[in-house]
Design brief:
It is a single chain. By secondary structure, this protein is mainly alpha-helical. The protein has three domains: about 1-80, no CATH class; about 85-180, no CATH class; about 185-270, no CATH class. Helices cover about 60% and strands about 0% of the residues. A two-stranded antiparallel sheet has the order 1-2. Helix 2 crosses helix 3, helix 10 packs across helix 11 (about 215-225) and helix 10 packs across helix 13 (about 250-265). The longest helix is centred in the C-terminal third of the chain and has 20 residues, at about 250-265.
Length: about 270
């Protein structure tokens, strides 16, 4: 009994220290909002949350309810605050462009495609099922690097190389089937594929969490127009393809312009964020 009483007393001493509640709230904040906690955030967010925790006998639920319902949680400045992990980047890229899923029957028959995908993620620094140690891959909320460990001089170029490969060539896992982005099908699903301004704005909104600068949007439009000054260059190219879908030259022009635009879009630092 004395041992149990002493343990209870020790716990009471620990939780009587207000720094304990702040420490826990910082952990929650880094998990749900952002890893950097400046002085203003400490005073305006962490300290009040810590008070909520102490008032509720260190229950976590009231703290999370307060945080997740707060205006601060929905502040635009807290959006796009985390670099995509390789798996987030890889799977997100395929889903955003509607790359068809592989049939389960094929995956059951051969490991060729699975080995290729695993190898690509290995190059990115996050091979599924093979973390660096028993603790797993460092989390986005784990100091000292947080999510920054996913981007370096080796892994960023590999992301761009993957984008180029599945835009221009694709990965053929049979004689006829491939993992490949269809830039024309993606553009055709946009609200107004005939207007270059609308195309650029739509892909920017779909690919990035927050708006791109006017300078970046202008560069995207320049690529789509192939450095031409008039909007009708794209409008006519798209109309010519729609009217003549079997015309190889019309197809190649639209395909090239869109691929170059998407390539630039996917290489932007804004696309690396989630």
């Amino acid at each position: 009994m004395d041992g149990a009483n002493e343990l209870d007393q020790l716990l009471d001493m620990i939780f009587a220290n207000t720094e304990v509640s702040k420490f826990i709230c910082r952990k929650l904040y880094r998990f749900f909002v952002y890893h950097h906690i400046d002085e203003q955030t400490e005073n305006d967010v962490i300290a009040p949350l810590a008070q909520v925790m102490r008032d509720n006998n260190y229950e976590i639920t009231p703290v999370l309810r307060t945080l997740l319902r707060s205006e601060h949680f929905f502040d635009d400045r807290n959006r796009a605050a985390v670099i995509k992990s390789p798996i987030d980047y890889f799977i997100g890229l395929f889903r955003e462009f509607g790359v068809p899923y592989i049939s389960q029957d094929y995956l059951n028959e051969t490991w060729v495609l699975g080995e290729y995908l695993n190898y690509q993620l290995f190059l990115f620094g996050q091979e599924p099922g093979d973390p660096p140690n028993v603790a797993g891959y460092p989390a986005y909320y784990q100091s000292p690097q947080f999510d920054k460990l996913w981007i370096n001089t080796d892994t960023l170029p590999r992301r761009i190389q993957l984008t180029e490969a599945i835009l221009y060539y694709g990965y053929y896992y049979t004689d006829t089937d491939s993992f490949k982005i269809d830039p024309i099908a993606f553009a055709a699903a946009l609200p107004d594929p005939t207007d270059p301004n609308a195309v650029v704005q739509a892909i920017a909104e779909q690919m990035c969490i927050y708006g791109l600068s006017d300078e970046v949007l202008a560069q995207l439009k320049t690529i789509l127009l192939y450095n031409q000054s008039s909007d009708y260059y794209w409008t006519l190219a798209w109309a010519n393809y729609i009217d003549n879908p079997t015309d190889e030259e019309a197809y190649n022009i639209v395909y090239y312009l869109l691929s170059e635009t998407y390539r630039y879009m996917l290489s932007l630092e804004e696309y690396q964020l989630m």
